[in-house]
């Protein structure tokens, strides 16, 4: 019996709940009904780090994504639906490591039906076809504020490499496809306080709407002395986060400071900070650099796997093992149709680093090709008393090469 036959498809149940919105009359809201989407093809080659003297075979993965987006509205009301089919294949059946995936951290942490995103339509050997209802959003816009109800993207923070206040569905540094933020089930309201200032608050539902899986947030964006200041308070999975995000322009450069202090439901409190700047070096060359501090990490390599802040890594969206990091990047617009990016994330304590590079070219208005790689540099794993031991953070990362093609309609 297939997984989808047990009690009906989660996507089918969600569409049933949305059936009034999908009625003929609703779909005919004015003349604003629009259709868009994309098809993406990714291929990766992953060379894992050897375990001591034992070599690990190179792995090949592929992922195809087809996304259909339907949206429209009338007057102050608007709506959006987006469905995505994902076909994933691997050369090895046990290739489930997040480091080997085109996608990143869990996309089902904050959804009422936690199974809906990874509903398996069919699976055969090392291939799997998944379907996801990634957007199901109803919006109301008025002079007094905006209201958003349903599955929607929510992201916080102005930092470029690592965002301490972004705890719902963050991207990891080495995520290949960062175009679409996975939707979460939420009710969100935004109220203007004047020019460039607002109050932003909402509730994000977890599995079964249980408080232990859900989150709430309150943010106030203030524009003071040409500076955007955003105090943030988040309650997530019974943890508390108090943060601030500051951004402004100084002598033609953009600078930012994003910080968060987390008091977990259990365990020790910890802080995270990202600070950086970006600048246009020329008409075709753009650079940025960012420092990141993670109080949940360790200062000694031997303590990397001794997580003194376990909730930070399980439910706090922290994945880096050390404390001090530097991340510079350079983006070159070689021609109007071709761009190149080089970036590095370095652990300042064990001196390991993760280097990334990509080249993108436009074959037309809606067709793009790109290729690139992420390479971990540092001491790899050795075996001590029969157990693997990390000697650096990024030395244990696999080397990954990728190629992609994207078509939009």
What percent of residues adopt helix (DSSP H or I)? Answer: under 10%
Low-confidence stretches at least 5 residues in length (pLDDT < 50)?
A: 1-11, 96-101, 103-108
Q: Using the CA coordinates, give the radius of gyration.
A: 22 Å
User: The biggest beta sheet, please?
Assistant: 18 strands, antiparallel, barrel
- Give the oligomer, counting copies of the same chain as homo and different chains as hetero: single chain
Q: Number of DSSP helices? A: 3
**How many DSSP-defined strands?**
21
Based on helices, strands and strand pairing, what is the structural class? mainly beta
Q: How are helices and strands ordered from N to C? A: HHEEEEEEEEEEEEEEHEEEEEEE
Strand content: over 45%
Distance between the termini: 36 Å
Tertiary shape: globular
Average predicted confidence as pLDDT: 86
